[in-house]
Amino acid sequence: MKKQKSIALLTTVFALSTALAGCGGGGNTGGGQATQPSGDSGGSNGGGGGATEKIVIATVGPMSGQYSDYGSTAKAGAEYALKQNQEKFKALGFDIQMLTQDDQADPKQGVAVAQMLISNADVLGVVGHVTTGASITASAQYEQDKLVMVSPSSTGSNLTDEGKKVVHRICARDDQQGSKAAIFAKNQLNVKNAYIVHDKQAYGQGLADEVKKQFEKDGVTIAGYEGITAGEKDYSAVINQIVAANPDMIYFGGYYSDAGILIKQARDKGYKGVFMGGDGYDSSDLVKIAGADNANNVIFTSTVGDLTATEEGKKWISDFESATGNKVGIFTSFGYDSMNVLLHGLEEAIKANGGKKPSREQVLDAVHQVKDFQGQFVKVTFNEKGDNEFASVYVYKYENGEKVYVGEAK
User: Coiled coil where (predicted)?
Assistant: First the structure.
């Protein structure tokens, strides 16, 4: 009896893993399962009474590990958008499902996830990846099979500069974010000299390089430029150099986990100047790591604006939180708009294909041609590179443990 049960179980597991083509290495949160509306499943009847065809949209980012806040918030927004559109696509004869995958913000895992998604013929688009490093490596795989991606948050300039047609993003690039951060620091914070640090990763170093370039252009003195190893717990070597130089500002290109440690250790050594970074600082965990007092007046730029600035934005937040039980996080809004952009392209491809299920290349072409699409939070027109012509950069700071909106970076 046990042997029969074991065979049955193995058969079930094999069938499931084959259908989902799950990501190897344990990098799969939520089992990589397709997200379906309550009480619905693939092959259900459409509005016209006929069987629906399945179409899968993947959402990929770090769902586990120290950067999981970025992936999980983008996924929550994407899932909300997909569920709002399922009935519309059902009327067209299609059952739209979502498949979530965890790339752990790891470029190697990004490749593994991309290859898995490519092997699933029902996947016609990807919302993601969330981080630049994983997006770059994954995009090389998607390009081979014309599988379109729309990233809510990968800001690295070289992502779209490499010339891959599949790559699209709705957020601003690092050269926009970095240059505007430097201009803001000089003009609004009166910074005369700065010490620049980065985490040696695609996002962090790319952002730091852009800040350095703009500072040099504007005559701000670079007191030092150093790379650190992300994930370490003691940065005293570089902090001692910084404290000795006593710059007006420390700019760190990297994520909140390392930024929080740098801020705390620098403050403990008596540094009183300004800290600044990019949207990698946008996490309440930075305040927990650095300490609320140490985080006061830490400045950061973001590609996402203030969602509470309008009554419409406040209502959307309320509706989202009521419907999902989730709090709005850093990339919830752009995960939502990225999914809506991709679904808009998918709908256009279906129409252009006479109502039939389109190919990946047809969906890619339709997304690439998106012009003046008004999302909930950002307007989208993709240029030839796949960058959004309407992307902007915004400034925030931490005050008494809370994130405070400063304004648009000019």
Answer: none
